[in-house]
Specification:
3 domains; 122 residues; mainly alpha; elongated
Length: 122
């Protein structure tokens, strides 16, 4: 009986060691994948195209949900909706900033034009 307990104990340790090694290998693979080498424009575009299944150049909530399911990530629908809302808000803010900068440049150019005209007319 004692030998059997020892064998079971050794087997348990081997199984735990094997599982721990597998987890460690997976973590190392994840670290290798998310390095700067994989963050170039082409790979980001390719990842976007994988998620954009209907090829309309946008990622819908359903496409994001499907991509997360493919990655074995279970995200509640309300959280997905919040993520999409945040993305839209950020895009709108960036758009407003671009419009503001364009208006500022336009005003600057107009002021410079007026100054040049005033200088020439005098």
């Amino acid at each position: 009986m004692r030998k059997l307990k020892e064998q079971v104990s050794r087997l348990r340790e081997q199984v735990l060691d094997k599982e721990q090694k597998e987890v460690q290998e997976e973590e190392e693979e994840d670290e290798e994948f998310v390095d700067e080498e994989h963050m170039d424009e082409g790979s980001i575009k390719a990842a976007f195209e994988l998620v954009d299944t209907d090829h309309d150049s946008t990622i819908s909530v359903n496409e994001l949900k499907d991509a997360l399911v493919d990655l074995d990530l279970d995200v509640p629908p309300d959280m997905l909706q919040e993520v999409m809302c945040v993305c839209v808000c950020v895009c709108v803010c960036v758009l407003y900033i671009c419009i503001y900068l364009c208006v500022c440049v336009y005003i600057y150019i107009y002021i410079m034009y007026v100054c040049v005209c005033v200088c020439v007319c005098e």
